[in-house]
């Protein structure tokens, strides 16, 4: 099948892209607004881009009502934000925080999360998260109607005890079990791992 | 645990980032070089970033999967050179059936060697651009280079606009345009030689698989 993307409706195009480009990592971004309300929300048009300098990118769309997302407003106002990473233990709370709440409601309160102070940036990180990146805006790009890319330089990394070995800096595969984003309300675990070449053939047959 | 990233050795920084930001989708990028040799290589500092316009981003480093500096004294890889020369490229998606070949293609070959031949893939013509698509891939995006940001020697990230989408029969329902979960099972990138399947899926809110 061949599709010219300019001839596909915007909604269908979105669904095709999020259905095909999977699994996506999740940036669970936490910020505080001007009134001091702690906000968090997940975004999966996200990835790491470079280690020198250490950069990640997140792409934001407008809300369903056409207004700027609270996360974006808070990043624009302060030039800083926190990217928290999502594993199985926090997946449900992450999903609940994706709902659109009024600005005076805190997703931390709605989902039972604990804001913890950061070392460099003024925003809170999510205490329950497996790992958190304190980020400073490195560059912003406005793309088309209501779409903005934010490139963040990672200044400080926090990790829950056990996730990173203090001596070797290796990441524990048992303590850190991230989930990936698919589409609609769907996600995947990363439990079924293999080494290439050869390891895939040793997995049980797909059912 | 707190780690100050600004003073950390860049090799360790790389390992922490590829270990923490997972699972990553894989762009298996195919291009021709100036001599007509068909090249393909996987990159996981990649994602879709917009649907209007439809854009992907790919970041190219000079390091291999182990974090070591590779090729041409750390110079630019063949793939970004071919993209910058022509302004076009193909992103092929990777599922279980071609994962092993994708991994073989991630090895460092000389400019004259074709990863298609080394990994047993078939180049097929794209519709709108001059580069080849990987026939064995479940889905391929024909992309036009829209923007580039250079970070240092050989290190660049590129934005591509997807102009054509190709999918193997059955992957996209012709009527509903839904992507089939039974026929399309891509793999995700972890680190080192490690990958994950996307077989174990769940919906939220709710319980995770046992």
Written description of the protein model:
The complex is a heterodimer of chains A (207) and B (210). Chain A is globular and about 55 Å long. Chain A is α+β, with helices and mostly antiparallel strands. In chain A, a hairpin with a 2-residue loop joins strand 4 and strand 5. Chain A has a seven-stranded antiparallel beta sheet, with helices on one face. In chain A, strands 7-8 form a two-stranded antiparallel sheet. Chain A has helices at 10-20, 70-78, 91-96, 107-111, and strands at 2-4, 27-32, 38-43, 46-51, 54-60, 80-85, 115-116, 125-126, 131-143, 147-159, 179-181, 186-189, 193-195. Helix content of chain A is 15%, strand content 36%. In chain B, the strands form three sheets. In chain B, strands 3-2-6-9-10-5-4 form a seven-stranded antiparallel beta sheet, with helices on both faces. In chain B, strands 7-8 form a two-stranded antiparallel ribbon. A two-stranded antiparallel sheet of chain B has the order 11-12. Mean pLDDT of chain B is 92; it is low at 65-73. Chain B has helices at residues 10-20, 78-86, 99-105, 115-119, and strands spanning 2-4, 27-32, 38-43, 46-51, 54-60, 88-92, 123-125, 132-134, 139-152, 155-167, 188-189, 194-196, 201-203. Chain B is of the alpha+beta class. In chain B, a hairpin with a 2-residue loop joins strand 4 and strand 5 (54-60). Chain B is 15% helix and 35% strand. Strand 10 of chain A pairs antiparallel with strand 1 (2-4) of chain B.
Largest sheet composition of chain A: 7 strands, antiparallel
Structural class of the helix and strand makeup of chain B?
A: alpha+beta
How many helices of chain A?
Answer: 4
Query: Which structural category fits the helices and strands of chain A?
Result: alpha+beta
Low-confidence stretches of chain A: none
Distance separating the two termini of chain A: 26 Å
Distance between the termini of chain B: 29 Å
Total beta strands of chain A: 13
Helix content of chain B: 10-25%
Mean pLDDT, all residues of chain B: 92
Low-pLDDT windows of residues of chain B: 65-73
Order of helices and strands of chain A: EHEEEEHEHHEEEEEEE
Q: Looking across the biggest beta sheet of chain A, what order are the strands in?
A: 3-2-6-9-10-5-4
- β-sheet strand percentage of chain A: 35-45%
Order of the strands making up the biggest sheet of chain B: 3-2-6-9-10-5-4
Using only C-alpha atoms, the radius of gyration of chain A works out to: 18 Å
